[in-house]
Specification:
Layout: E1 3-5, E2 12-14, E3 16-19, H1 28-40, E4 45-47, H2 56-65, E5 73-78, E6 80-82, E7 89-91, H3 95-109, E8 114-119, H4 128-141, E9 144-150, H5 154-163, E10 168-172, H6 184-190, E11 194-198, H7 219-231, H8 239-248, E12 253-259, H9 263-270, H10 280-289
Parallel strand pairs: 3-4, 3-12, 4-5, 5-8, 8-9, 9-10, 10-11, 11-12
Antiparallel strand pairs: 1-2, 6-7
Helix pairs in contact: 1-2, 2-3, 3-4
Length: 299
């Protein structure tokens, strides 16, 4: 497994990492097996959130990794507060809530500190200075090591670059969603802030799932793009690996965060890197093939 430096931090994260949102929390033993299988194969970055399964996801991640704190980088997120009756959640990026929520995450994760604490969304109307102050306080107290945001909104990303010492931005990015290439990826690379990609396999469309329309792309266009992906995929190499190659081809990317929920998926993920990566010509071919759209909101 190969590793990248995460932004301006001293964290080194595996180029492919495990998104824990889809873990089968009703089967704790199987979930722990999947996490430990990833760890055994060199994946050291695990991403969760206090929102997922009302905290149960964090509990499972914590249980699986509690004896491996020196080997792993644990990331979780904050900002979505469950209502008291558990029926829904509200957006709450306020300082008071973040300072309270972190202690609950620490208990669930069974750790003294969180390696990467991320704001789980956000708008330009948020009390951003207050949010940033909360993260800085947590760094000073040693409860978190570094912080970042999870956002696709260019105006929010620009504001955090200007105001905060963020290490990373998690954002949706794939061959079928190249919107970050217009502005966000170059800007983040320039400021030494790493991107953690989500949606890299587009809900399985770039891993063998039957083609369907996606974003502004028609079903027929998606089929064409998948055919081009297959054309540059080395024999016996999983299609998903080529899709991951594409996003890792941008210098801003720190790690491709891939969701895993079963044994086949974890075996395919941990096998990444055992086949030749796409060439520069292949990369350019894919760029020339897939149409690019731009963010129309939150600019």
């Amino acid at each position: 497994m190969q590793y990248n430096q995460l932004g301006n931090s001293d964290l080194k994260v595996s180029k492919v990492s495990m998104g824990c949102m889809s873990l089968p929390v009703d089967d704790k033993e199987r979930s722990i097996y999947l996490i430990q299988k990833a760890l055994d194969e060199g994946i050291n970055f695990f991403d969760t959130a206090d929102l997922y399964d009302k905290g149960k996801n964090e509990e499972i991640v914590g249980e699986a990794l509690k004896r491996h704190s020196d080997e792993v980088v644990i990331a979780t997120k904050v900002g979505n507060q469950w209502k008291d009756d558990g029926s829904d959640w509200i957006w709450n990026p306020k300082k008071e809530y973040i300072l309270e929520a972190v202690d609950k995450s620490l208990r669930r994760l069974q750790t003294d500190y969180i390696d990467l604490y991320q704001l789980h969304g956000g708008t330009i109307e948020d009390p951003m200075d207050e949010t940033i102050e909360a993260f800085e306080i947590l760094k000073e107290k040693g409860k978190i090591r570094f912080y970042g945001i999870s956002s696709i909104r260019p105006n929010v990303i620009r504001a955090y670059i200007a105001k905060a010492n963020i290490t990373s931005v998690m954002m949706q990015y794939s061959l079928l969603d190249r919107r970050p290439e217009e502005e966000c990826l170059p800007l983040l690379a320039k400021n030494n802030i790493s991107v953690l990609t989500r949606g890299t396999l587009v809900k399985g469309l770039l891993a063998g799932k039957k083609p369907e329309a996606y974003l502004s792309h028609t079903k027929e266009e998606v089929q064409q793009y998948i055919s081009s992906l297959k054309d540059v995929t080395h024999i016996d190499k999983p299609l998903s690996h080529t899709a991951i190659d594409y996003v890792l081809g941008d210098k801003a990317i720190g790690s491709a965060v891939i969701g895993v929920s079963n044994r086949d998926q974890i075996c395919e993920l941990t096998n990444y890197g055992n086949f030749p990566s796409i060439t520069d010509d292949d990369y350019q071919l894919l760029q020339d093939t897939v149409s690019v759209s731009k963010y129309t909101k939150h600019r």
